[in-house]
Amino acid sequence: MSAAVITRVVAMVRWEPGARERLQAAAMDLYISRGFDRTTAADIAQAVGLTERTFFRHFADKREVLFSGQELLEQAFLGGVVAAVPHASPLEMVESALSAAAKFFPAERRDHSRRRRTIISKNPALQERELLKLAGLATAVAAALRSRGVPEATATLAAESGVTVFGVAFGKWIAEGEERSFLDIEREVLGELVAMTAGAT
């Protein structure tokens, strides 16, 4: 086999479909077994027979393996706000946003989400990034609520509450032994929030 043919074969392997998913799976395994800080982009690429350069074609840095796709979650939240019926209350808009976001967490994603949370929980910098992502999500949802005529303070409170419900529900969903759907857990947590605020008034 000529050198030119070998080069083409290697290039095809590096660009074969699913390279991003293979890199992500390898990264998760290494972060769990070796630790996030002790794993390099080169380690991840090597684990699946790709180059470090190929890794950076798919991910800006090794943190993005854990945080890529967050923009799609935000779009789901915002789409849920837009899809809420006309004249919906702020809480109903938030409920619609939560329902839309729940579609991103089918049962088959639960194990991945558990592993991801384990990795993040062991690294303060990753924890900070996770909190910043959630804060950004709340800001975006508040803006969407305001665009539907919700007053500024109410929009902020509703958005922050919605993201808090999402976070609490997520923690319950990935708990060991939990088998309920993400949507069912979200509705339960939202119901607890409503009951709590009703009791306060």
- How large is the radius of gyration? 20 Å
How far apart the termini lie comes to 79 Å
| Low-pLDDT windows of residues | 1-15
Tell me the helix content.
over 70%
Q: What percentage of amino acids are in beta strands?
A: under 5%
Please identify the structural class as seen in this structure.
mainly alpha
Oligomer classification: single chain
Brief summary:
The chain has helices at 3-14, 19-33, 41-47, 52-58, 64-67, 70-83, 90-102, 110-121, 124-147, 152-173, 182-200. The chain is an all-alpha fold and 201 residues long.
Indicate the topology:
Blueprint: H1 3-14, H2 19-33, H3 41-47, H4 52-58, H5 64-67, H6 70-83, H7 90-102, H8 110-121, H9 124-147, H10 152-173, H11 182-200
Helix pairs in contact: 2-3, 3-4, 6-7, 6-9, 7-10, 7-11, 9-10, 10-11
What does this structure look like?
- The protein has 11 helices and no strands.
- The protein is mainly α.
- It is elongated.
Question: What key phrases describe this protein's structure?
Answer:
elongated; 74% helix; mainly alpha; 201 residues
